[in-house]
Structures are given as structure tokens and as C-alpha cells.
Write a structure and sequence with these properties.
With 231 residues, the chain is α/β, with parallel strands linked by helices. It has 2 domains: 50 residues, no CATH class; 161 residues, Nucleotidyltransferase, domain 5, CATH 3.30.420. It has 8 helices and 8 strands, in the order ααβαββαβββααβαβα. The longest helix has 28 residues. The termini are close together.
């Protein structure tokens, strides 16, 4: 089991750069007792810039080894956050998992435990709550941009609340259906589900109704990175 990782990350690269240049996060940025591990699904230049910000006595490693076998058609196309998330689930318990991340996107992935190694089997990617809101606003002539919130009523009394309901409750249903189908295809009728991501509150209740036990880990990707690096 990997050590508890110290986490410093954000959904927006620019916000992290600003934070690092302020006084608040300098003690973390300058700490030399742990390596800096970076998981980036953005352009290589962005990861390199972040690495320069964190450079010090400790090594900076972009996308450390994940230690998984990958059984998909194009392994190089899989986002590193998905791989580290399933590795983090295996650190919680070495067994078969369905791993759900909810942030910019909703991802649902399967990982099989062989007794010695995790095997990433792939999964599904759908829009997250903010992307759904932006798509409805962009594609509908008179649909406003709403700030999605979880746990809203299904019956909206006006257009804004109707959009909020469709996004929040629809996202929960999508996650539930994807978990069910991926588990069926993998032959795991009651597979445990690991939930993570900043917008996980949108799907928590729906996933809790499934046949498999629901687990939740806020910093699952960071845990997987620490495990892969050997921390």
C-alpha cells in the first residue's frame, strides 16, 4: 500500500500557476521531502511549465509509471488520469473494480485484478455536468447557461430549473447505466464501484442503488500516482 500522498492540484492549469506564484502554496511547492508527480492530460508544454514551477531538490516526474497492463485497441490514447484512477482503486483493495470519475468528463472504466497485476479493460467517456450545460446553451437558441448542481428536483418549474434537472438527474442515470453495462460485459454482476472526481456528488445517489458496494476516494488519481511511482 502506497503512502498517503500530499495533493496539490487543480482543474485549471492557469489557476495552479497563479497559486504557486502566491505566498499561500510556496511551502508546499518548495518542500523537498517528496518527489513531485504530475498527471497531465493537457498539452506537453503545459506539463513542462508546471514541472519548472515545481523544480527543486526533489525530482519532477510527469506521468509516472502506472504498473498496469492495458488491453485496449490504442493504449497510447488512454488518458493518464484514467489509468492512475484505476491504479488507485487497486491500492484500496486488489480486486476487480468499476472506476467512475466525474469532472470535466464522466468516465467509467473497468480494471481486472489477475492476482499479480491490474489490467485496464477500457470503458466509456461522456460529458460532465459543466460540459452538458455549455452544450445545451450553445446548441439551443433560447436555452440559458446554468450552473449545474447535484440533488435537484426532477420537475423544474422554469427553464433554468428544467435544465438543472436534466443535467443532474440525467448524469446520474447515465453513470448508473454505464456501470451496469460495463459490469455485465466484464462478467462481474456485482462489481464494486470506486467513485472519484470533483463533481462526484452528481452521481453518488444513483450509483449507491447498484448491486455492487460503492466506495469513494477524493484523491484517487493522486493515490494511483504515488503507488505507481513507489511512494
Amino acid at each position: 500500500m502506497a503512502a498517503e500522498p500530499r495533493v496539490l492540484f487543480t482543474g485549471r492549469f492557469e489557476a495552479l500557476i497563479v497559486a504557486l506564484s502566491s505566498g499561500d502554496l510556496q511551502p508546499v511547492a518548495k518542500a523537498v521531502d517528496q518527489p513531485r508527480l504530475i498527471c497531465s492530460v493537457r498539452e506537453a508544454e503545459a506539463a513542462a511549465e508546471l514541472g519548472r514551477c515545481l523544480m527543486g531538490a526533489s525530482p519532477v516526474v510527469v506521468d509516472p509509471p502506472h504498473g498496469l497492463s492495458i488491453e485496449v485497441d490504442e493504449p497510447e490514447s488512454v488518458g493518464s488520469d484514467r489509468l492512475f484512477a484505476v491504479r488507485g482503486a487497486l491500492e484500496h483493495r486488489p480486486q476487480n473494480w468499476i472506476v467512475v470519475q466525474v469532472g470535466t468528463a464522466l468516465t467509467v472504466d473497468a480494471v481486472r485484478w489477475t492476482g499479480e497485476q491490474g489490467v485496464f479493460l477500457g470503458g466509456a467517456i461522456a460529458p460532465g455536468p459543466r460540459l452538458l450545460s455549455e452544450a445545451l446553451n450553445a446548441g439551443g437558441a433560447r436555452l440559458p447557461l446554468v450552473d449545474p448542481q447535484p440533488n435537484v428536483p426532477a420537475t423544474g418549474g422554469n427553464t433554468e430549473r428544467a435544465l438543472a434537472a436534466g443535467i443532474a438527474i440525467g448524469l446520474g442515470g447515465a453513470a448508473q447505466a454505464l456501470v451496469r453495462e460495463i459490469a455485465r460485459e466484464a462478467g462481474w454482476p456485482a462489481a464494486p464501484v470506486m467513485l472519484t472526481g470533483g463533481a462526484r456528488g452528481f452521481v453518488r445517489a444513483a450509483l449507491g442503488e447498484g448491486p455492487g458496494a460503492l466506495h469513494e476516494e477524493e484523491h484517487l488519481v493522486a493515490r494511483g500516482m504515488a503507488a505507481g511511482y513507489g511512494a
